Each structure stands twice: as C-alpha cells, then as structure tokens.
C-alpha cells in the first residue's frame, strides 16, 4: 500500500501569452517509511510538484492519491483538513511566528485540528516533541532568541505535532550553514529510521539529496528515469545536478 | 465553542505581538466612543435642564376655562359662563389619577395702595396654596398662605417682586398692610422672581391671595371687575349683574359703609379658571380626557350636549420642547456617527496594513491547515477585540470627561446606561464592519503565494 501515488500529473499555468506547462505527466509512488529526496534545478517544476504533493495546489489533470484518498477531487477546505492532520511542512525560511514562544509556535497547527484532544493534551505532546528535537530547555524562547538550527528544529517539531503521515521539507537547509545543515539532516534521518516517519526532502543540492535513501530527479516537468537508490548517510552524490 | 475560544486566543496573541500598533489603532475608537459618551451624558444633562426650565414655564399645566354663555343667540365669548366652581377644582384634584394638583383661580384688575404709593398689578390671582406648587413658584421671603386662610377668606396676600418695588421703596414688604379697594391685606410673603412669560408679560407684577378673599371680600364678583375697576366699588352684588332683568331687589340696598364692612353673600362660587398640574407632559392627553369626563358628569351634561368648559394646554411650549430634544438627539447621533466612522476607517486601514504585513503568517496558517473561514474569523475577531477594548476604554474616558465637565464647569450631566450599552454594541459593530474587508482579503490569499511573499 503506497502512501503517495500520482498518475500522469499535469500542471498548466494560463499566462497572458499562452499556456505554460510546468508538469508534463508525472507519475510516482512513495511507500510509508521512505526518506526520499526530490531533486531538480529551479524551473524544473519541483516546487509545483511539491505544492501538489503537499495538497496546497491541485493538478490541472491527472490523479493524486494520498493515503488512499484522491486529493485532486477534494475541495480546498477538505485539502486543508488533510494538510492539517496528515502532512507536516518544514520551510527553507522556517516561517515561525515572531514574538511567539517556541512552544506556541509548535502548537500553531493544533489550533486548526478538529477532534476531541484537549488543549492540555496538545501542549503535553508539543513539549514532548520539543524535547525529542533537543529543545526541551528552550520552549519559552522566541524565534529571535534562537539560532537558525534551533529555529529549524522548532519548525520540525511544529511539523510533527499532529503525528503526520508525511513530512514535506522544502530546502530545509537552504538558510543554514553546513554544520547545522548536517545536524538537521541527521535529525530527519533519525526520525525516519527510528520512528518510521515518511519524509520528502525537496532540494536542488545533491549533498542534501544524498542523505535520502532514494532520489527522484525532476527536469522540465518530467521525472528522470531510474530513480537512484543511495546508501543512506553516505554522502556520495548519486545523481548529477539536473 | 472550542474553535471560538481558540480563535479568540489566537487573535489576542496576534494583538499582543504588536502592542504599540494595537494601542494606536484602538485610539481612534477610544476617542470616538469617549466623545460619544461624554456628548450623550452632557447632552442628556442639558436636555433634562431644558425640560426642567420649560416645565417651570408651565408646560405641564392645563388650564380649564368656563365655556361661553349665550343669551338669545348672542354669545359672550369664552370664559363668560359661570359654570366652573372651586368644588370642580377640588374634585379634579381628588378624582383624576393623572392630575397632580388643581387650583381654582379668580382674576381681577385692581389698584393697590400703600401709604403714598399706588400701583395696578398686571395680574391679581385669587387662588389656593396649590397654585404656587402648580406654577412651581417659590416664596422668596415670608410664607405662603394656607388652606385655613382660604376657608376663612383671611385678608392676607403674596406680592410679586415688581409690586414690592413699586409699593415699598424701602424693599421691606412682609408684615406690612396694603389696601385693595379699601380692604386691608397683610403681606405675608414675597414671591421669587420669575421674569417675563412667553408673551413678554412681567410675571412678577402679581398679587396672589386666597380666592375667597378676592371674590367675597374685595371684588364681590369674578368677572365684572376685570377691566373696569373704576365702577367696581358700587357694584358688589353679583346676582344683580348675572340677572340684570330682575327688577326687584329682595334685600334692602346697603349703605356704602355697610357695603365696605360686610362681606357680600354670593350665590355663585364660580371661578375664572382652574389650573391643573400634570406630573409629566406625556400624561397631558390622559388628564384632559379624565377632566372632561369628570366635569361633564359634575355639570350634568347630557350626551350630545357640548362641553360648558374648555381645556387649554401650552402646546406651543411642548412642541418647542419636543423639537429641541429631537434636534439635540440628532446632533449627538451625527457626532457619534462621524467619530465612529473615522475610528472605523482607522481600524480598517491598520487591519489592511496588518494583513499585508502578515501575509507569510497567513500563508503558513493555511499551509498547516487553516481554512479560509478560520483566517476570516481570526482577523474579524482581532478587529472586534480591538474595537471592544477601545469601546471599554472609551466609556471610561468619556465618563471621566463628563465628570470633569461637571466638576469644572458645573454643567449638569446624566449617566446614560443605554448610551454605554449602545457604545459597546456599536464598537463591536464597527469592528465587524470595518474588519470584514481586510479579513476577507486575508482569507482569499493563496497559501502558495502568501508563503513566498517577501
């Protein structure tokens, strides 16, 4: 049973002059527990694909199944529910709320979660996750009081707070130095290997992609044949810059 | 429910993140509401003061006049019938629930003499002590006459300020005796100054005395002496004047000495008018109805027969009062609307800035599962919370302002609970209306674009 299956995704933007075809029939599958890197240069369509996979956007044609549900047919509100309960986002620029404590930042998605968990239960879980990412002693700090790596770890904790089926990380190390990048990436690897969380790393950096167990290359709106398996943790770049 | 509290918390947090801007935004509403509260309270105070003043002028009094007498197709004009009695006045005060007090009144126009001075006052009113209460006319010095004075037709009187000035150059009138048609009247009190009435007549040029004294001791008849005091000394028997065709006098004509020494028996205790006080102006129509029913019954009028009396009220004054308070209210409403509009535009402005500035936050919230509806309610709630805080602070400020005006300038103010309630409602409404557009704009953002916004 796959977590993600896309069939022939097309995305066409209607611009003033004519149509711009960004995705030209993308079909891929992701199994639960995978750590996959989506690699591509800017303009290759990887951001568009990621937006569709993250249920932020819908394809012009083609079908997208996520966790057994056909997302391409869902209304924006239903997609919001899917994003909230099943997908965690980690962004390049962290996107933490300023002047808000790390704990409150982690709790942000729970404000939009329907269900019978009490605020206290959410808080307990947020505290626990912050401890897991090594920020147990920084919970009351505001983003401006945290380093870049710490901020990204708060963002990862935020992505995990609703126990998602998939964590989507969009250039998670783009704003970090190499040392903290390594820290964050190994955290992703640990979450994947120890807790079985499915992670999709979107990057243009082969060094980052090398941390994944599988790399999917995208170029001009098409997946490149032969998705390469890499040995996780060994920094050998498995595919050239597309 | 949980959703609302969560959204409310989110809104509060968002406002706390930028306290300075929140405070400045609220300032518009604070000033708006404060000015409304202060205006309304000062306005209500003034309005009450105006109402009091107009009530002093006699706006809530009714005057019952006798109807017209007619003989052989010739009418003698309003007030010429001799149907109204002092018992009518007593009955009106006793039997009409909408009536506070009633006093009979007898007019005359006579000369007053004191020592070498003489004066003809504009008004001579023979009445009962209730009259002073009805006209809200305090005594400046001395005392008012009593019911006993009325029953005994005692020779006492109250003088208006103008008459005191004319008759007593020294100014001391209380305790002195004046002569009216050779009847000595002891001045037991001086009335407070009232000034001119609406027609420009000097209301202080007045002599007030028990109506029995005026009717039975001095003029002998109510109507006849009004404008012909020169002939009054010789015509004191009212029956002769009422029935002039009666050729034979049943009693021997008294000598002039006898006439002056003995009160004349008069068979018609009619009065010229009855003054009626009604507690509030709104009860005037009801009081008129009650008095009409009572008097028709007392005068044995058959259905279909016209009234033998007329009831007058001071419609002119009451209309003026109505127009004044309406204008006042409209003025205040206008001021309120303008200031709240300005405050609301300020809120909208800042909320729009806030939405633009927080585009990335909105994108993030949408990415992690906020529906457009959630964003909409969050921003509307932020605006409402801002406005409500502004409203509460504004109420306090306005209260302080009106208290300051009261203490410093001595203007009357009246606490207005409806104004406070309305202010809270209006400020929340302003938040809703002016917060809606920015919130709607925020909710329409595309999360992908918003997340990339720099």
Describe the secondary structure blueprint for this structure.
The complex is a heterodimer of chains A (242) and B (454).
Chain A lengths: L3 E11 L4 E12 L4 E5 L6 H8 L7 E6 L2 E2 L5 H11 E4 L11 H6 L11 H14 L15 H13 L5 E5 L7 H18 L2 E6 L2 H4 L4 E6 L2 E2 L4 E2 L13
Parallel strand pairs in A: 3-8, 3-9, 6-7, 7-8
Antiparallel strand pairs in A: 1-2, 1-4, 4-5, 9-10, 9-11
Chain B lengths: L1 H16 L1 H38 L4 E6 L3 E2 L2 E2 L10 H10 L5 E8 L3 E3 L2 E3 L3 E5 L2 H5 L4 E4 L4 H5 L4 E4 L1 H7 L9 E4 L2 E9 L14 E5 H9 L18 H5 L13 H6 L11 E5 L6 H15 L10 E5 L1 H43 L1 H9 L4 H38 L7 H27 L3 H6 L2
Parallel strand pairs in B: 7-12, 9-11
Antiparallel strand pairs in B: 1-13, 1-14, 2-3, 4-7, 4-13, 5-6, 5-10, 8-11, 9-12, 10-11
Helix pairs in contact in B: 1-13, 2-11, 2-13, 2-14, 3-10, 11-13, 11-14, 13-14
Description of the molecule:
- The longest helix of chain A is centred in the C-terminal third of the chain and has 18 residues.
- In chain A, the strands form two sheets. In chain A, strands 3, 6, 7, 8, 9, 10 and 11 form a seven-stranded mixed sheet that branches. In chain A, strands 2-1-4-5 form a four-stranded antiparallel sheet, with helices on one face.
- Helices cover 31% and strands 25% of the residues of chain A.
- Chain A is of the alpha/beta class and 242 residues long.
- The two termini of chain A are 30 Å apart.
- In chain A, strand 4 and strand 5 form a beta hairpin.
- Chain A has seven helices and eleven strands.
- Chain A has a single domain, classed as 3-Layer(aba) Sandwich (Rossmann fold).
- Chain B has 454 residues and is of the alpha+beta class.
- Chain B has two domains: 186 residues, no CATH class; 248 residues, no CATH class.
- Chain B is 53% helix and 14% strand.
- Chain B has 15 helices and 14 strands.
- In chain B, the strands form two sheets. In chain B, strands 1, 4, 5, 6, 7, 8, 9, 10, 11, 12, 13 and 14 form a twelve-stranded mixed sheet that branches. Chain B has a two-stranded antiparallel ribbon with strand order 2-3.
- In chain B, strand 5 and strand 6 form a beta hairpin.
- In chain B, helix 1 packs across helix 13, helix 3 crosses helix 10 and helix 11 packs parallel to helix 14.
- The relative contact order of chain B is 0.18.
- About 6% of the residues of chain B have low confidence.
- The chains are: A alpha/beta (242), B alpha+beta (454).
